[in-house]
Amino acid sequence: MNKLLEIQALEIGYAQKGKRPLSLLPPISVNLCEGDFVALSGPNGAGKTTLFRTLTAALPPISGCISFLGKPLQDYSAKEKASLFSIVLTERPDDFFMKVFDIVAAGRYPFTGWYAKLDKKDVAMIEESLERVAIQDLAQRAFVSLSDGEKQKVMIAKALAQNTPVIFLDEPTAFLDFPSKLELMHLLQKLAHEDQKTILFSSHDLELMLRSADKMWLMAKNQPLISGIPEDLVLSDAINNYFGRNNLSFDLNSGHFMEQPQYHGKIGLNIHSVEAKWVAHALQRKGYQVIEPQNTNIFVELQGHQYELRTNDRIQTYQSIEKLLYAIHKIH
Amino acid sequence: MTDTHSLTKTYQAMFFLMVLGLLLFFVNILFGSVVIDFQDIMRILFNDEINVDPAKVAIVRSFRFPQAVVAAVAGASLAVAGLLMQTLFRNPLADPSILGISAGSSLGVAVLLMATAAFSGASVASLGIWASLGVGFAAFSGALLVLVLILVISTRVRNVVSLLIVGIMIAYIAGSLTGLLKYYSSKEDVQAFVIWGMGTFSNVGTSQLPVFTLLLLFGILATIFLAKPLNIMLLGENYAKNLGLHVKRNSFLIILISGYLTAVVTAYAGPIAFIGLAVPHIARNLFRTSDHRVLIPGTILAGMALALFCNLISRLPGLDGNLPINAVTSLIGAPFVIWIIMRKRQLPS
Amino acid sequence: MVYSKICFSDKLIRSLFSVLILVGIVTSCEEVSKPNSAHESSQNLLKYAKGARLFQHDTGYVLQIIDPWNAKDIISEYFLYETGAENPSTDSIRKVVQVPVNSIITLSSTQWAPLVQLGVDTVVKGISEAGYVRNQRMRQLIDNGNVIEVSANGIFDAEKIVSLKPSLILFSPFTSGVPDVLLHTGLPLLPWPDYFESDPLGRAEWLRILGVLTGTRKQADEWFFDIEKRYNALKYLAEDVHNKPTVFSDKAFSGQWFVPGGQSYIAAIFRDAGADYIWKDNESKASFPLDFESILSKAQQADFWRIAQAANDDYSYEQIAQENEIYRSFKAFQQHHILFCNTAKTAYFEQSQFEPDVILSDFVHLFHPELLPDHQPVYYNLLK
Lengths: 332, 349, 384
Fold this sequence. Notes:
The complex is a heterotrimer of chains A (332), B (349) and C (384). Chain A has helices spanning 48-55, 78-82, 100-106, 120-132, 148-161, 178-195, 206-212, 230-235, 238-243, 274-285, 321-331, and strands spanning 3-11, 13-16, 19-23, 28-33, 37-41, 63-68, 71-72, 85-88, 166-170, 198-203, 215-220, 223-228, 248-251, 256-259, 266-269, 289-291, 299-303, 306-310, 315-318. Chain A is of the alpha/beta class and 332 residues long. Chain A folds into 3 domains: 3-84 and 164-248, Rossmann fold; 93-162, no CATH class; 266-331, no CATH class. In chain A, strands 8-9-10-5-11-12 form a 6-stranded mixed beta sheet, sandwiched between helices. In chain A, strand 13 (248-251) and strand 14 (256-259) form a beta hairpin. Chain B has one domain (4-342): ABC transporter involved in vitamin B12 uptake, BtuC. Chain B has helices at 4-30, 38-45, 54-88, 101-118, 125-154, 160-183, 187-197, 209-224, 227-233, 237-242, 247-269, 275-287, 292-314, 325-342. In chain B, helix 13 (292-314) packs across helix 14 (325-342). By secondary structure, chain C is α/β, with parallel strands linked by helices. Among the domains of chain C are: 1-90, no CATH class; 238-382, Nitrogenase molybdenum iron protein domain (Rossmann fold, 3-Layer(aba) Sandwich), CATH 3.40.50. Chain C is built from 15 helices and 17 strands. Chain C has a 6-stranded mixed beta sheet with strand order 8-7-6-5-9-10. The longest helix of chain C is centred in the middle third of the chain and has 23 residues, at 217-239. The chains are: A alpha/beta (332), B mainly alpha (349), C alpha/beta (384). At the B-C interface, helix 3, helix 4, helix 5 and helix 7 of B face strand 7, strand 8, helix 5 and helix 6 of C.
């Protein structure tokens, strides 16, 4: 595969007055290839934003080298950089009268003259970009009137109109509802796989990244950046090492982070139906360990939509899980 | 802008403003505190004034015509300077005075008025030059001083928000220095300062008119070259940088041109309030766009029209003498802006 | 420009000139000094005024107005040639106006008031701030439309000024120079800094210039010398009093108390009326701002307190105290020794400048009742 972006021994961080610059993590060496769809992730404070700003030339590196197509980033002019990579940020234009078309057209500005006159090719490119993210109907709408998901698509269309091989997105799913998140991930995936765009997006939504990203860059404060496909990272326990905290750990079974449980009781339950699964869910949430029914003298059994609580001496029937939980609480 | 329908509308609105401006210009020449009949006005305008009272000729030639030109050009300059500031700071409350440039010219005038009095008797040679160059020069020097300061600072600060805060702080400093000077000066000098502060379009004589007009036209024309950078800056600084724009260099140019326009207008006409704040809003709402290729000419034309209208109101026959222009601009402009905002805010579609 | 700066006073020019002759070289200074001017040999006609010089000439007068802020500079110089005489050619320094003038715009009440008294008020075509005019005759002229208001609240109506076609405009110079609007009229402008005179007789003497301008020199001179005689007599009367009461002046205005300088007009009146002005040793002619504490510490024990301001008829000690409680602390307040001039009910602004003798009588009467027991106060009286 074609190497687009090479990062060698890159140290990122901030300049400090009178002191040597503050480096956030060990030198980074990693590559991006054509068609890569990479998620940059790590807990808050890991340096995601700093790396993002360094890669987009908004911040100078402390040391090391970022090179696009074999040429160091700092050797590109501002205009050349504009045709190298485009960005999608969490900040958004807020002018009341700005139309969707105007914003996508801004992607063509680096290639127009002093008066920003759009020629036929520019207009065609803008329309193509709008179609690619399926918002051609919104072209004459006011940007501020759109939903967050639509706004994000507009900004992606702007990046497409800029026609750069690389697109950097900073927290693209931050303000979206869950279906929009999935839709957006799907769109980015498509752009990477079908249009051969190289896409790097930062996020702290781990489940979403595991689900969609082809590759992940994991960051944590003072730890080396590691790169790999999500499944390898999960199995090598890297996710746990980088994201885990004292009482939180990544559960390989469910693919979720879970709190280290501290049980104050054991309840027997046979989990072989959907209902039983949700009863177990409720019990665990309330701090009861669910075990095989034969190992305990308190256990729950499901009779259709009724819940039986059996103890040594008696059987009680409840109509809802809520009432069942209340009864268990009283026993303990 | 590819939409032909909105393009036609834009041309219509532009044409409407142009006709309105010309009409107001003519009405400004027609009316004043002295009644001159229509035929005489036409004779004077067409150089056929043999039978016209020379005093009337002088009134039209030396006062009404220059005053109308000054109102139009100053109105256009302040309006477009305001648009530049509002876009640069992405702040609808920004106006040409926001960076302390008007406060700087006030300080210049205060220094002139009060220093002349303070050094009375003492033979300060430079004072003679000061006094004869007058208020305009003092106002321009003060404005220029602040402008240079702001420009130097603009190359050092990280972003425009910091710059905005620095500008407002400089305005406060200049304002309080002016206040201090006023505190320590005589009633007469304070009175002279207050009158200067009310602003007027009538201070430019026929001899200075070409210079005034050329200086401002030069600045106004320069804003056309800012249309593209301004459009990009609407997206925010980070996007603008990614689109290959030299944000600092362009901020510098925007401040330079806006400050220059404000400094020249203030030097000749005093601190004219409100036009720079209100007109960009009027233009945005009229053209319903954020595209500066439309907004810049639109703001220029709307600024001309509003200033001419205010000038007309301030000199209406029946009103005793000339009302201070600053009172009129706010009195006319503020309700107008409120009306625009209160109107059902229909989003462009 | 009216403000053509000539940086040489007569004296300086004369001494320079003699030095040049001694050395035996002739420089361009010869042109500057105008040796052919009549006033080189003739005497300044004005006795007390410091802000103007008036010289007689075969066919008219030379009038020089001195820069109020820099006594070395002449800000305006006119040749006033008499009707019938040949119109002398203009030069770059001196402007020319024919006298008597037949139409004049006066932008201060002290410029037209003497003209009413001299019976030549018909030359007045325009005035400023007509709303404040008290003089009956002038009110009548305004109401009849013979006199037009051309400036209100400090803003000039250039169109009206031009349409009146005046042969001369008298204006009060500001530190900021000549108002631009007046310059653009292209009409002859004469700065009139009479209010800078700190000598009461000097300030009154400007009426003599008005006499020359309007062809009533004889009447004006008689009028002025009468004032002079009466003033000096009163001054002589109060000169040898043993007991000089202490006095201070004014009160805070918009939060700022401007104290008249020790060399000011009112300080001179106090001195001539046989009173001891608290700030008589101050060297300023103008008023200066001072804080309450300093004023209180110096003036608290003063015998009299002079206030001149516009007020209603019922203005009282109570009202003064309501403005600021501190005023109660002054002994002059407690003893009801406030010498008050209600500028809204007297012709203080228009007329008092030409009646320094009357003002002086008021003060002599108030400070030393035994000297003028029968005087009826005109401007100043004890506040009730």
